[in-house]
UniProtKB/TrEMBL annotation:
Keywords: ATP-binding, Cytoplasm, Magnesium, Metal-binding, Nucleotide-binding, tRNA processing. NCBIfam families: T6A_YjeE. This is tRNA threonylcarbamoyladenosine biosynthesis protein TsaE. It is found in: Cytoplasm. The keyword Repressor does not apply. InterPro entries: P-loop_NTPase, T6A_TsaE. Belongs to the TsaE family. Gene3D superfamilies: P-loop containing nucleotide triphosphate hydrolases (3.40.50.300). Its main location: cytoplasm. The keyword NAD does not apply. It comes from Sphingomonas psychrolutea.
C-alpha cells in the first residue's frame, strides 16, 4: 500500500482504529521519519484523542485511557532501548490483555510480539511511503477491511 503523505499515514491509522481491540499489538517498523508516529497519531485521534499525541520517544511508554480514548492504548517507542531485557521493567505484560499496544521500533525487542500485526514503512524517492504488513491469523479477516 502506498501512503502519499503524512495525512494519508494518519488516515490509514484511523482505518486501523476501527479494527483494533484490547489485547491487540500493532508494531510499526521503518527508519526515522518514515511515518510510524503519523500512523499511531491517526489511530489515537480516531479513538477519540483530542489534540496531537506526543511522540513517546523520551517517555518510552505513553498511556491513554478511557475517557480520553474509547479503549486503553499504550503507545510505545523502543528507539532508546538498548537491551531487550529493559522491556521487562516497563510492565507491558500486565497491560497487554486490556490495552491496544502500538509499538514503534519493535526490532529492538525481537520475538516479544509474535502475534502482532507487523507494519513496515519504507520511504520512497518521491516522498511517499510504502506500507507492507505481516498479517497474523488473528488479523486475517480484519485486514481484509483495510
Amino acid at each position: 500500500m502506498i501512503l502519499d503523505n503524512p495525512a494519508a499515514s494518519a488516515a490509514f491509522g484511523a482505518r486501523l482504529a476501527a479494527l483494533v481491540a484490547p489485547g491487540d499489538v500493532v508494531t510499526l517498523s521503518g527508519p526515522l521519519g518514515a511515518g510510524k508516529t503519523s500512523v499511531a497519531r491517526g489511530l489515537l485521534a480516531a479513538l477519540g484523542l483530542a489534540g496531537e499525541a506526543p511522540s513517546p520517544s523520551f517517555a518510552i511508554v505513553q498511556p491513554y485511557d478511557v475517557p480520553e480514548v474509547r479503549m486503553p492504548v499504550l503507545h510505545i517507542d523502543l528507539y532508546r532501548i538498548d537491551d531487550p531485557e529493559e522491556i521487562d521493567e516497563l510492565g507491558l505484560d500486565e497491560a497487554a490483555s486490556d490495552s491496544v499496544l502500538v509499538v514503534e521500533w519493535p526490532e529492538r525487542a525481537p520475538g516479544w510480539w509474535p502475534y502482532a500485526l507487523a507494519l513496515t514503512l519504507e520511504m520512497l524517492p518521491d516522498g511517499s511511503r510504502r506500507l507492507t504488513a505481516a498479517v497474523p491469523p488473528g488479523w486475517k479477516a480484519r485486514w481484509q477491511q483495510i
